Amino acid sequence: MAELLGFPPQVLFGQLLIGLINGSFYALLSLGLAIIFGLLNIINFAHGAQYMLGAFVAWLGLKFLGVNYWVALVLAPLVVAAIGIAIEKTMLRRLYKEDHLYGLLLTFGLALIIEGSFIHFFGVSGQPYSVPAALQGGNNLGFMFLPTYRAWIIVASLVICFGTWYMIERTKLGAYLRAGTENPQLLQAFGINVPLLITLTYGYGVALAAFAGVLAAPIYSVSPVMGSNLLIVVFAVVVIGGMGSISGAIVTGLMMGLIEGLTKVFYPEASTTVIFLVMIIVLLVRPAGLFGKEA
Amino acid sequence: MKMLKKLMCSAIVSAMAASTAAQADISDNEIRIGYLADMSGTYSALAGPGGLEAAKMAIEDFGGKVNGKKITIVSADDQNKPDIGANKVRQWIDVDKVDMVAGMVSSAVTIAVNKVVEAKDKVSLVSGSASSSITNQFCTANSVHYVYDTYALAHGTGEAVVREGGDSWFFLTADYAFGHAMESDVTEVVKESGGKVVGGVRHPLATNDFSSFILQAQASGAKIVGLANAGADTTNSLKTAKEFGVVQAGQKIAGLLIFLNDVHSLGLETTQGLQLTTGFYWDRTPETRAWSKRYFDRTGKMPTMVQAGIYSSVTHYLSAVKASNSDASSAVMAQMKKTPINDFFAENGRIREDGRMIHDMYLAEVKKPSESTGEWDLYKILRTIPADKAFRPLAESKCKLVAGR
Questions:
Q1: Which of A5, A280, B98, B399 could join B354 in a cystine, given CB atoms 3.0 to 4.6 angstroms apart?
Q2: Do both B242 and B100 map to the same domain?
Q3: B221 — contact with chain A (CB < 8 Å)?
Q4: What residues of B are in contact with residue A19 (Cβ under 8 Å)?
Q5: Contact A126/B232, CB-based, under 8 Å?
Q6: Which of the pair, A265 or B112, is modelled with greater confidence?
Q7: Per CATH, is A22-285 categorized as 3.10.290?
Q8: pLDDT for res B24
Q9: Percentage of chain A with pLDDT > 90?
């Protein structure tokens, strides 16, 4: 059989597909971060905690209220978004005029508090959440066995990512949002309720994180630290894509998943660091990121 | 004059020291135990707070006193970090006058703590750690390795799997000391038994996503996928293997370090048929059932082999203190080594000169969901691995305490 770079092609295709699945998570999470940074100028360090909250709301719902996966997929993002909106209204709002650093510190502190209290109550070992019946099993694609649930992750996250991109780039609401990013004072002068727009945007970004959390619940353990493991990588993705760039976040997320997947074949020891290597190179060559506008 | 003063002082000090040594009984009229373990992290479910409860049970069963002297216990979370563990134990011994350290999980922490315990001439009872080097190149005269080690796991599970036709292996190895030791111990066993290792992948500790590695294991064509990792890494590997249909496609999985809590949290659907080596199983004899029931009533969980071993080792220590009426390390260690251990945990267990506690190990298989009659009915014991076969023979030892080394 023909080999590519010393590896049989089915190994390579399999790893690329796995990379795409992980990339879907990166895309969903970095998209939320990019939207929040674009309009609020806040570096949302609580994003990982909010992703974890999404998974936990789904798990708690199933355990105590019998809420099934499909309901949780809608309900958990709404619940977590409501928490996010409360945070925005009571705390973040006061920091918009200050340096980026204040928002970063506030959200970082919140993340530590949320994660710490969840560790206190649930421990770190992780809670099991089973794959919904309709998505169990899988198909043999010839080069690999693809579990149905993993395929669902790609489909669900692509739909959400594309939907979000379409809403921001192609609808009237999106136009307001982009205008708010460029010049909030002017937009307010046209009679648009900018504070409301900001609140809803933060809520939406947080909801995306929670949605990713529910998607992740059946394949990773639902644990208080699941978000902090992922967050640093997602930040690197946002930096590579260009802070605040919507399409940049999506494309870079998927791309980094693929690069990570390939690294796992050729040199698995480096699989956790390769993304940061890419980040360094991109920052050296294009400081504004791949899709960012040069300031 | 000054000279005389100095002389006087040193005379008084040495007289005081001599008088305490002459009494040679229980220091400070109290037996103080320090329980050190990962209390909140990756390994907290296998020892952690449950192990502390087991140690407290052992103390209570002595009525809280040995020969009229009170037993006290303190505990700390080492967070799996050798520096934190070693500093805590140094403080315990210097400030709190702790006589014995129990628990001890991460092998790296144990090796660091044992050096402190040896320098301060106290006693440590290691129940949680895996690495067989603790009683090999890192052995000390002040330490007992009680429950299991990588040699026993490799020989127990590795040999059994190869004997049943699993003669080609692919390893998923945690990329740090313990994983490497486990992999090399098993590789040796596989080769000795006529099998071969076709490949492997070393993953970073605490990896979130194992799908890529499982895919490589599937592509390798090996009959056996060996998991040379522990805790959350093992449960994540098993979960992913199930999702990707590894077993359905004809490969078998050998978990090299699996605890009861891992099987319980993953469920039988995912783990059925898995073979593993264990030093203790609650549902083996009337005695194990009776003790485990008591433990269950206090904690709501059945004990892992480590938690059962903590109770047994602390009891053995307190019995030795009682018999020798001393908590000095040399007296207690000598007493512990010459007394066989016969309780619910071990039959005719004994502590060798290198500190290794020798007892029967068991090859177990995880039950099918249809065979299980209750939440904790998880294993069936396939066979007993006799004590003299289970652990590294002294003839192969590199320990400085073994004669002729």
A1: B399
A2: no
A3: no
A4: 212
A5: yes
A6: B112
A7: no
A8: 52
A9: 50
